[in-house]
Amino acid sequence: MSNKITTFEKNESEIRAYCRAVPTVFKSSKNAVMIDENDKEFIDFFAGAGVLNFGHNNPKMKEAIVDFIQRDGVIHSLDMYTDVKREFIDSFVETILKPRGWEDRKLQFTGPTGTNAVEAALKLARKVTGRTEIVAFNRGFHGMTLGALACTANNAFRSSSGVPLTNVIRDTFNDMEALENLRQKMFDLGSGMLPPAAFIVEPVQAEGGVRPATKEWLQGVQKLANDTGALFILDSIQCGSGRCGSYFSFDDLDVDPDIIILAKGLGGVGTPIGMLVNKPEFDKAWGPGQHTGTFRGQGLSFVAGKVGLDYFKDEEFNNETKRKGDIIRKVLDEINSKYSQAIEIRQKGMMLAIEFDSAATVKEITGKCYENGLIIGACSTGEIIKFIPPLTIEDDKLNEGLNRFVASVEAVL
Amino acid sequence: MSNKITTFEKNESEIRAYCRAVPTVFKSSKNAVMIDENDKEFIDFFAGAGVLNFGHNNPKMKEAIVDFIQRDGVIHSLDMYTDVKREFIDSFVETILKPRGWEDRKLQFTGPTGTNAVEAALKLARKVTGRTEIVAFNRGFHGMTLGALACTANNAFRSSSGVPLTNVIRDTFNDMEALENLRQKMFDLGSGMLPPAAFIVEPVQAEGGVRPATKEWLQGVQKLANDTGALFILDSIQCGSGRCGSYFSFDDLDVDPDIIILAKGLGGVGTPIGMLVNKPEFDKAWGPGQHTGTFRGQGLSFVAGKVGLDYFKDEEFNNETKRKGDIIRKVLDEINSKYSQAIEIRQKGMMLAIEFDSAATVKEITGKCYENGLIIGACSTGEIIKFIPPLTIEDDKLNEGLNRFVASVEAVL
Amino acid sequence: MSNKITTFEKNESEIRAYCRAVPTVFKSSKNAVMIDENDKEFIDFFAGAGVLNFGHNNPKMKEAIVDFIQRDGVIHSLDMYTDVKREFIDSFVETILKPRGWEDRKLQFTGPTGTNAVEAALKLARKVTGRTEIVAFNRGFHGMTLGALACTANNAFRSSSGVPLTNVIRDTFNDMEALENLRQKMFDLGSGMLPPAAFIVEPVQAEGGVRPATKEWLQGVQKLANDTGALFILDSIQCGSGRCGSYFSFDDLDVDPDIIILAKGLGGVGTPIGMLVNKPEFDKAWGPGQHTGTFRGQGLSFVAGKVGLDYFKDEEFNNETKRKGDIIRKVLDEINSKYSQAIEIRQKGMMLAIEFDSAATVKEITGKCYENGLIIGACSTGEIIKFIPPLTIEDDKLNEGLNRFVASVEAVL
Amino acid sequence: MSNKITTFEKNESEIRAYCRAVPTVFKSSKNAVMIDENDKEFIDFFAGAGVLNFGHNNPKMKEAIVDFIQRDGVIHSLDMYTDVKREFIDSFVETILKPRGWEDRKLQFTGPTGTNAVEAALKLARKVTGRTEIVAFNRGFHGMTLGALACTANNAFRSSSGVPLTNVIRDTFNDMEALENLRQKMFDLGSGMLPPAAFIVEPVQAEGGVRPATKEWLQGVQKLANDTGALFILDSIQCGSGRCGSYFSFDDLDVDPDIIILAKGLGGVGTPIGMLVNKPEFDKAWGPGQHTGTFRGQGLSFVAGKVGLDYFKDEEFNNETKRKGDIIRKVLDEINSKYSQAIEIRQKGMMLAIEFDSAATVKEITGKCYENGLIIGACSTGEIIKFIPPLTIEDDKLNEGLNRFVASVEAVL
């Protein structure tokens, strides 16, 4: 097999990472299964870092995009109008926004990455308020371009910026005391701290280790944002699009974000997209073209993404997500009670984490998983394993994957 | 027709721009033709802002990606290995790098936008040198995320950042005197200026108004970069991938960039991609995962992009590009000699610009072009019209587009 | 009288401030009394913003500097050696450092202002650690030049900087919970916060409203500094030089600062000085001339300052300071218990504050004090009156001044 | 002798610099002579880094300040009004401003150091314009606090800041081409550079190596400042107060600065001061207390400074300055023609420099000068010797000092 990866070792950058943990060449994939060139079958509990909520090569999406290509649909349109873009917007408004009373919200398509959408949200908040500082939280992940990276917490990522990461006030996630302390500083003219442009929060921290915000804290953040005249931004890039058992992971928290950031699962089948959902009173601060980007008009993403939205026309899909999440939960709880090295299980819908005692333990387990034909990833600073299989995973594949995980844990611990 | 754009006016952000100049809904496109929902046919001299070098819905690319989808190829793979990524890399090495003696270069796939690739290049340069400052040039365009935006010159874009754009030294493009002055400052310990991390240059400024770097100046920049221990970065996002009559627009300038930045046309059919070509001695400064991004493994882009690379196996395609560029040139030269409001023609290969006396004149002309069924865009600060049709445009469409342009100019001037 | 201030109104900058509250021209001063050109006598409870600990025109200092001038002593010496500088250093070592076991400390003379000394301390901390961030606290005041101003809390001062005030982490003074939260962030690799270069604290906040640090909190700050490898800097500019009943205001708190910053009272009779007391293991990070300044060698300040140091050869002077502080305290306590508009009394040694309900109340009271012949100043954001008479004030003048204050309060409330 | 400097070696900071080149302890000084504890007499061609224009212990100044002290004048007054401050202002207006038609200018007293005055000037310019960037020039020296240091050019000083020095655009002194290039950038909306808040220039660079600005260039800078709406700031700290044969070194250049910065010689006898001369239309942007400082009201500096101003009531003193400058010039010209290691002589009034081939040569010469009883200093990056004796130096001392210099040069070369 090694000859098959020579190309990569010879001509791809040293920056490559996931492929070092999964050192094989994949040739096809279907729902929760990936197959390599040796015809080995892997069950995928990583789903392209939370993108493939609807599975690899989702059949409805495949059909839709092949039809679209064959009828010469407009694949690339910048921000010009196309029929499929309209259908995507209409569908998002009808299926997602209207039931929440948000049908006046403005959708802004950015460059097709999460980090680009984050950068646009920060610009808008700064433009609306005329302020510079953003409040961001520990273990938060918001992207790798300079503006977003300043909001990202992990020092391993931050330290590669090469320049100071500025204009961000750092605080502690899910910590009511810290929030109260921040409030005091912000209303104290002798604190040296002025009201910020925005608070940016993940309703469920994904990369940070699957940490759902509590209702009390998230509402507290929203209130402090409102009280200081700052925008309240929810980064739903990984936790949104149905991942947590509801379209938005914050649907049960009774909050009203000024900007919602979406990407990853929104594009359907791995076809990329980045989008903001802006309150109109803030959106109007934009002038034409003030945040551009070549690939904002991705026809394939609109087509596949619309198929994805259809899953949310009723609650059946969400219920299935929760049911499957609980299947995983049960297995993880058992591991947690059995092994002292397992420390905590965290879950919202079908995003789960098991935290171990060390990154070393986790590395051994995920290495064994790979051997056993399971793709699964660590997160945070390495001591946590995250479970984000396709939401559409079949029960037998889910159980088989869990068996492979349990076997791997047993082999290591 | 207006009812058909209600969706956008009601639920899309106020930031939308191109669609205001081209206020119609497109439903299909083929090579250099776009068709709207009223079945009006437009000739496309803008090519998705320089992305669609091989035309809308290039038939070979369509076939390749439909086959790929239908065989359940891996559409989304992060930075894991896939067969189609390997084929893309092999093809790039064989077709592009080897003939230039650069077969040891390292390809780095970034988030699939130009600006993301620029951010990665800046990080690498800062990491390699341990320095912070980047030299960038007037009228340069490098993207809209915070790190790239600091390198972008146009104040209309810069003013939306909301925070200071720092760590960039600004200098003047194609100006030998300015370059000499900069050299003096950099070697004067009493200048307050230290050696920079990198110089970032577009070999042909595209958005800045089609301004090809002279050989003398670009070599001077490279020499100053080398002499100061800075990296020499060529941003070839819009001018590369065959646009200027050779694969790289700088192939005739005898330079040896430390990092080449590619995006736009590299992905083939509007399927997005961002890629760096790094010298190995600098690439090795990267540690695994130091600049990540969800959508770095775009199977569709690898497949369509590889088809695009095949065009460069011999010189025939480049020769055609130059031939067609000269067809455009001839028409623009005639306009230039006929109308006093036309000031200058600039060209490299099939990227051309005609500069008029004012942005107001240009706005009238491009408005008339739209009426006449020609999509064409202004650039820089509005006083320049840029010609970047698909390189694959048929001669009759090219001539018909030029006729429409001439008619529009005549109607206005 | 108004003709006498015409010069100032006509040719002095609009920035003038204290003189607006005390709009008369002073011609002489002696200990705690200032006399204006109308021969009106004022009792001075402000002491030149805490400089004149030993009184206006202290007779011993007068004699010493007149002798020095008449023998052609070196008034201005940059950082060259002079006899009087040596005597000042010897005296500081003998009288102040040795009794504390700090005779190895290194004295660094900076430009003769507090803010310049603060800038030097920040540079040294950043040089020693190779880090950039400084932790500073709410209501802290450290000066008005850009580096020091970034550490100063009051937004009224900060907002005049005209540029971002960066590289400072803001936290809450005397708040153990906030300190614990900061500790967590600093040891969490996922917090986005790295260890700082230094913590800068006033042991007693003066301008911030006379707030003595608690022992528990200040030791906590020192421990966090030590644990993170940061320097622990005590800004003793206003609270030092005997003001609080001991040479250093932190003598009773059992701390061991890496850098002590002194200015104000250190120079004796209003003759300016700025000085750092550095631990030798950090001081050695300096190279020659890395923080220069023209007026670092102030002969008059060394001469008068040495006389000031002599006051601390035994405890008598400190005991007097405490005794007089308690006299003031008693009067303020009575006011506090009598008037609902009085909120709190704070004290350390002979620095006291009475906090009222509003800045408006305070403005009326201090205005009435001026009429009654008492010079006294507000601080913080205006709602606090600070008592810092010369430490050498005679009892009768002290009582007379307090009577004037009480009369002013009674007239207003 | 070494025992006499033990104190400094043991308890003074490692940062000390001048004293390493002049390792003796001075006990008295008179006009241009300094005497050490061994009764060795030195002639002083350095004058306290350009402070002592009127000599050490100028007899008129001594008399004035002794009288002032003995009558209990107000030595320290913050920004309160005093009789001696009024006399200083009146004298400055009458003697300096009126003859230039500038009697409406506003004098702003800052903390008593040049760097503090520079910081205040930068704040005012930023406040007036609402802009952030300052244009500063190579080899410029403006001080060591963070805001001023960002304007200072010498990398040896800059590198000790420990944080990025931002918000300054660097350009080349006395270079018309560079200025023209800067103008182009500032009026090009596609340059990435916006109009600055101010240009700060020394009319004669002192620390940078005695480089007088040409009339053409300085007027060009003023015009560019005016055209861009920026303030034109002249830093006259070292070159002003009569040093160059006229009160301001730019009196012959027909410019009209918006802010003049003064310090050093303005205070008379080494008594410190910092002062701005602001145009009233800009000064009014200040609000009360927006740049404060404890030692702004230095009675001794007002008294001695006023005596200094009296020297400029007629042209006799300036004529003497020029005459003595030419005596030095003649000797330096001879050295320059005699030794190949001498490269260039530069002069304005009584500030002169001789540039040698290397810093090593200069170090040898100044070392020999010390042995021969001459105090003289290197500047810039070490290869230049600067001549700035007291303007009041007697002819015999001047000639004797020059003889010692010539002997030192001869001994080395």
Summarize the structure.
The structure is a homotetramer of 413-residue chains. Chain A has 413 residues and is α/β, with parallel strands linked by helices.
Question: Could you describe the 3D structure shown?
Answer:
The structure is a homotetramer of 413-residue chains. With 413 residues, the first copy, chain A, is of the alpha/beta class. Chain A has two domains: 6-54 and 315-412, Aspartate Aminotransferase, domain 1; 62-310, Aspartate Aminotransferase, domain 2. Helices cover 39% and strands 17% of the residues of chain A. Chain A has helices at residues 6-11, 18-21, 47-50, 59-70, 83-97, 114-129, 146-149, 155-158, 176-186, 215-228, 280-283, 299-310, 316-338, 359-371, 395-412, and strands at 25-30, 33-36, 41-44, 81-82, 106-109, 134-137, 168-171, 198-201, 204-205, 211-212, 231-235, 259-262, 275-278, 342-348, 351-356, 374-375, 377-379, 384-387. In chain A, a hairpin with a 5-residue loop joins strand 9 (204-205) and strand 10. The two termini of chain A are 30 Å apart. Chains A and B meet through helix 1, helix 2, strand 1, helix 3 and helix 4 of A and helix 1, helix 2, strand 1, helix 3 and helix 4 of B.
Rg from alpha-carbon coordinates of chain A: 21 Å
**CATH domain fold name of the largest domain in chain A:** Aspartate Aminotransferase, domain 2
- CATH superfamily label of the largest domain in chain A: Type I PLP-dependent aspartate aminotransferase-like (Major domain)
The second-level CATH architecture of the largest domain in chain A is 3-Layer(aba) Sandwich
Can you list the strand order of the major beta sheet of chain A? 5-13-12-11-8-6-7
Structure summary, number of beta strands of chain A: 18
Helix content of chain A: 25-40%
* Alpha plus pi helix count of chain A: 15
CATH C-level class of the largest domain in chain A? Alpha Beta
Measured distance between first and last alpha carbons of chain A? 30 Å
Low-confidence stretches of chain A: none
The coarse silhouette of chain A is globular
